UniProtKB/TrEMBL annotation, chain A:
Pfam families from the UniProt entry: ABC_tran (PF00005)
Compositionally skewed regions (Basic residues) per UniProt: 1-13
Highest taxon of source: Bacteria
GO cellular component: membrane protein complex; plasma membrane
Naturally occurring in which organism (per UniProt): Streptomyces muensis
GO molecular function, one term: ATP hydrolysis activity
Annotated segments matching region Disordered: 1-21
Name under which the protein is recorded: ABC transporter ATP-binding protein
Gene3D superfamilies with a match to the protein in the record: P-loop containing nucleotide triphosphate hydrolases
InterPro entries: AAA+_ATPase, ABC_transporter-like_ATP-bd, ABC_transporter-like_CS, ABC_transpr_LolD-like, MacB-like_ATP-bd, P-loop_NTPase
UniProtKB/TrEMBL annotation, chain B:
Residue ranges of domain ABC3 transporter permease C-terminal in the record: 64-173, 314-427
Subcellular location: Cell membrane
Native species: Streptomyces muensis
Pfam families according to UniProt: FtsX
Protein's UniProt name: FtsX-like permease family protein
Cellular-component GO terms for this entry: plasma membrane
InterPro entries noted in UniProt: ABC3_permease_C (IPR003838), Macrolide_Exporter_MacB (IPR050250)
A molecular function GO annotation: transmembrane transporter activity
Membrane-spanning parts: 57-78, 108-131, 151-172, 188-207, 219-237, 265-288, 310-331, 363-385, 397-418
Keyword vocabulary terms for this entry: Cell membrane, Membrane, Transmembrane, Transmembrane helix
Organism placement in taxonomy: Bacteria, Bacillati, Actinomycetota, Actinomycetes, Kitasatosporales
Family from the record: Belongs to the ABC-4 integral membrane protein family.
Keyword check for Disulfide bond: no
């Protein structure tokens, strides 16, 4: 069923030996259905794959293919109906929202299309918010350093409302990086940005992987954005429908255009 | 536009509940008291009874009009602010400002009509009960029958409709015009209120212990001081925040949120200050007065009894209205933040931390409001007590203060925590997706 050998991990890059798990993320037969009865929609149908540490993976597919559900289930924002999700070798189990939140802290960082920065806080305060909430000591120097590395060293006291979309998304990346998470999930991070800002954001995500050994999983519908990743996972009708390593924008677009065909011919 | 107004009410009755409740309560109170005019106007009522009834109707009717206006205005302001996106959409679709105004005013008038209609029954019963209170205390002759006539009916409808239409007009104008420009005027009014309040409270010492009007200067003083504080609410809040040694994620976030939203929260703080000051000052002074009369061994005159009834009624009405306003504006302000709560949760806040932050914010707000309200109340209570009795601070003030604080805290904390809890039921990802 899963033609592209989705269990294969992409381990060409030297992994940083910081923890016991070689795989940053593993999903086993994850299924999720919304609604009941006739109106039920199967968003994920037995998805299984693993991602090695220090990899940059794009998840692509047509609208309604289940990419956002996949991201939410893998990131512990939503609970799958069945199947196993492991982040950094630890299984994400059920439990209340508080438990899931504590699980995500330090393991998972987020970058969203709509930034989701708090309007009442400055750039610097937004960046250190996850540390504050986790009750960790806040290293202001470190926060400054991270913000400088995304090119916002001179915007510490600004509010999100005073920044451009690209700048806001870079703040969101700094916020995701500051807790040094094992996996960063990015949901259409360039969806609301112009081409130049999008390129800056994608290069930053790429650098987080190459220079700092983070693992990035990015949901996108844009073949150009996907071409910045090391590999692309294709999703159609809630199932994995292939994988492409070292993607180029043209190849990804070509593959996407024929994704419907391969599924109907029963791959 | 009127059709659109009717349609928007029919499809979202929940949104108009706050406005409806304010209009209903207002109309009920106005009609209850104005039915005393009707009762007094019938044949065969002796002059003392008629005077008692008319005074009650006049004083509370006047207070009631103001309160209806404020309550409906606060409900509508929130309503219009939450519908900013919808109004913007209508404007983009070609609606002129006048059309929007007609729509919002039309909605408000329709809701006010329904509220008034619903209030007629309760107001009739209320009028009966009020008359019985007056008769039991001997202020009105037993032979007087309750009447619910044209005065009650007309004033109820007129005042509620006018207040609703006026409040709606102002709310939509504020929303479409954008920024306010009353900074200087507001400051001037605040200082003027504080100054006249202080003068009025000090004027108490000019009176002698047995003067009938002794209660007036300190009561006005306390009310004016609380109005002054209320007008300065945003700056008072900022001053308090500057001195707050809160640490930890919850305190840190709460202080920053409050600082950022100080302007919006001013309305809530204003209601809190006024409520605390008026309730504490009036109830305490009335208690001191009753004690002093009892100690002197005299029986109360009809006037003194009237004053007592009026005091309690006015406080009762203010308490009910301010509670409705607080619940309404806190509910709206908190439910408006569902997206922000979602963002906090995605940034790593547990539901407990979100609730803790909301609780901390409300606590700071409540304590600030109660402290300044109590300060204004004491400015009236102390001079009154010094002139009326030999003491400085009456024993009653503690019990009354605790009771008033408890009501304020229960209303504010209860509303904002219950609302926040409900908002947390939406999954975090869904909450940030809501186009607020």
């Amino acid at each position: 069923m899963l033609r592209a050998g989705s269990r294969r991990t992409h381990g060409t890059r030297p992994t940083h030996e910081r923890g016991p798990a070689a795989e940053a993320l593993r999903l086993v037969k994850v299924s999720k259905t919304y609604g009941t009865g006739d109106g039920a929609v199967t968003a994920l149908d037995g998805v299984t794959f693993g991602l090695g540490r220090g990899t940059f993976t794009a998840v692509m597919g047509p609208s309604g293919s289940g990419k956002t559900t996949l991201l939410h289930c893998a990131a512990g924002l939503d609970r799958p109906d069945s199947g196993i999700v492991c982040v950094d070798g630890t299984e994400l189990t059920g439990g209340g929202e508080a438990e899931l939140t504590r699980f995500r802290r330090g393991r998972i960082g987020f970058v969203f299309q709509q930034y989701n920065l708090l309007e009442t806080l400055t750039v610097a305060q937004n960046t250190v918010l996850p540390l504050k909430l986790a009750g960790q000591r806040v290293d202001r120097g470190r926060a400054k350093e991270v913000l400088a590395s995304v090119g916002l060293g001179d915007r510490l006291g600004h509010r999100p409302g005073q920044l451009s979309g690209g700048q806001r998304q870079r703040v969101a990346i700094a916020r995701a990086l500051v807790t040094e998470p094992r996996v960063i999930f990015a949901d259409e991070p360039t969806g609301a940005l112009d081409t130049r800002s999008a390129r800056e954001v994608l290069l930053l995500l790429q650098r987080a992987v190459r220079a700092h050994g983070r693992t990035v999983v990015m949901v996108t519908h844009d073949p150009v954005a996907a071409s910045y990743a090391d590999s692309v996972l294709f999703l159609a009708d809630g199932r994995l429908a292939g994988r492409m390593d070292a993607p180029t924008a043209d190849a990804v677009a070509e593959r996407l255009a024929h994704l419907g065909d391969t599924v109907t011919t029963g791959v | 536009m009127f059709l659109l107004a009717m349609r928007s009410i029919r499809h979202r009755p929940g949104r108009f509940l706050a406005t409806l409740l304010s209009a209903f309560l207002g109309a009920a109170i106005i009609m209850t008291f104005n039915s005393m005019h009707d009762t007094a106007a019938q044949d065969g009522v002796d002059s003392t009874s008629a005077e008692t009834l008319s005074t009650a109707a006049g004083v509370v009717g006047g207070y009631g009009t103001l309160l209806v206006f404020f309550a409906v205005a606060s409900a509508l302001t929130v309503n219009v602010r939450q519908r900013a996106a919808e109004l913007e959409l209508l404007r983009c679709s070609g609606a002129t400002e006048a059309q929007l105004k007609r729509m919002v005013v039309g909605e408000a008038v329709a809701v006010a009509l329904v509220g008034t209609a619903l209030a007629i029954g309760p107001a009739m019963l209320g009028g009966r009960a009020l008359l019985e209170v007056f008769q039991d205390s001997g202020q009105v002759a037993e032979s007087v029958d309750p009447v619910f006539g044209p005065i009650a009916f007309m004033t109820g409808i007129d005042i509620t409709l006018l207040a609703s239409a006026g409040a709606a007009f102002l709310a939509v104008r504020r929303a479409t015009r954008g920024q306010e420009r009353r900074g200087g005027a507001r400051k001037f009014l605040a200082y003027a209120a504080l100054l006249t309040g202080a003068v009025s409270a000090l004027a108490t010492f000019v009176f002698s212990a047995t003067d009938a009007a002794l209660m007036a200067p300190p009561a006005y003083g306390a009310i004016l001081l609380s109005v002054g504080f209320a007008l300065m609410a945003p700056r008072l809040l900022e001053a308090v925040l500057d001195r707050l040694p809160l640490s930890g994620a919850i305190g840190w976030l709460a202080v920053r949120n409050l600082r950022e939203r100080a302007g919006q929260l001013a309305g809530i703080l204003m209601s809190l200050i006024l409520f605390t000051a008026v309730a504490t000052a009036t109830l305490t002074m009335q208690a001191v007065e009753s004690d002093a009369v009892a100690a002197s061994g005299l029986t109360k005159s009809i006037d003194a009894k009237n004053l007592e009834t009026l005091n309690f009624t006015v406080v009762g009405i203010i308490v009910v209205f301010v509670c409705v306003m607080l619940v309404n504006s806190l509910y709206a302000a908190t439910s408006y933040r569902v997206r922000e709560f979602g963002q906090q949760r995605l940034a790593g806040a547990t539901p407990g931390q979100v609730l803790g932050t909301v609780g901390m914010e409300t606590l700071v707000l409540t304590v600030t409001g109660v402290v300044f309200g109590m300060a204004a109340a004491l400015a009236g209570i102390v001079p009154f007590t010094m002139v009326r009795t030999d003491g400085v601070l009456p024993g009653e003030v503690y019990g009354i203060g605790v009771a008033v604080t408890a009501v304020a805290a229960a209303v504010t904390l209860g509303t904002s925590l219950a609302t926040a809890r409900r908002m947390l039921r939406t999954p975090a990802v869904g909450a940030v997706a809501v186009a607020s």
